Amino acid sequence: MERGRHTYEWRNCSCGRRGRICVCAPRNSMDPMLIHVMNESRRLRVIDELRAELDKDLLGVDAKWVLFGMAIQSYRYEQLLVPYPPAYCTPAGFNINSLSYVAGTMSELASFQRRLLQNVLPPEQVELLHWLLIQSGTPQLRQLQRNDQLLLWRQLEQKPEPRPHLVFRVQQRNQDSEPVEPLDVTNCVYFCGDMEELYALIAAGSHDISSSELEFYDDLEQACSMAEWCPGWGYSICGTLLRSIAVCQLRQASPELPQLLQVRYLLIYSMNYTQKMQGYLLARMCWGMPRAYHSSCRHFQSLLLVEARMSI
């Protein structure tokens, strides 16, 4: 009877924490081994999902983490962090100090990627990155390669000069295999303001432009000239000093409804992207090699610098 009662309680769990022991199940009457097995199962699932995202587009994850970190550091974090990580919500309000500490101690993501399987990372960092990339449901950033960038410039009927170091498409996580909707340049506007606003703009999916206090431009060239440099994240592969332009599309279902704005692409200029990418490529080459080979890896630095510049 006891077992049936507990099964009924689990099936009627209302907290939605799949695979994790929750308050809906009384822990004092559960087998400790079952708790361990369920928690270990969830830990492995989290690692698999994080590995898949990092392997798919490390630069895209890096860029999203940069925007997330900028929103955390803002004095307007309550308005910009939407959604807010539920693990840092308390009855008294948002625990921004703990969130800032966990985000501030995050290692660079190439190292995070290597150490993920070794189970040596702080669990708070693993959980926070997993929430941001998987659980939050916010759009992902996918890096555009050269051919896709040329297609984007054709759709915009202009190419920004100088050319941005990085271009990302904003899309939902499950849309990687779906055809990309072309841009309607007649309904495009551009945002080049403070980068701390970008996480909220992207996470919202759509934004009511009629009630917005942000400034948008109709011309890409003007937006590029107005974008200002912002300090980023010290460990970012994208660079530590950035400026960005968000390519947005306006949508209106009917004249009675407000115009909604959706961020479709993100153009990023970096002050030191080439040096950062060179270091990342060198580290990637040396991963898994015996220490004796590390010095010989450095002979390839000039080649890696060329590769980094070719990726721009």
Describe this protein with a few key phrases.
two-stranded antiparallel ribbon; alpha+beta; 312 residues; seven-stranded antiparallel sheet; disordered C terminus; globular
What report would you give on this structure?
The radius of gyration is 22 Å and the shape is globular. The strands form two sheets. Strands 3, 4, 5, 6, 7, 8 and 9 form a seven-stranded antiparallel sheet that branches. Helix 2 (32-56) packs across helix 7 (123-135) and helix 11 (273-286) crosses helix 13. The chain is of the alpha+beta class and 312 residues long. Residues 1-11, 16-21 and 289-312 have low confidence and may be disordered. Among the domains are: 140-272, no CATH class; 276-310, no CATH class. It has helices spanning 2-11, 32-56, 58-73, 77-80, 96-104, 109-115, 123-135, 146-156, 198-204, 220-226, 273-286, 294-297, 301-310; strands spanning 89-90, 93-94, 140-143, 166-171, 188-191, 207-208, 230-231, 241-251, 260-270. The longest helix has 25 residues, at 32-56. The termini are far apart. Helix content is 44%, strand content 14%.
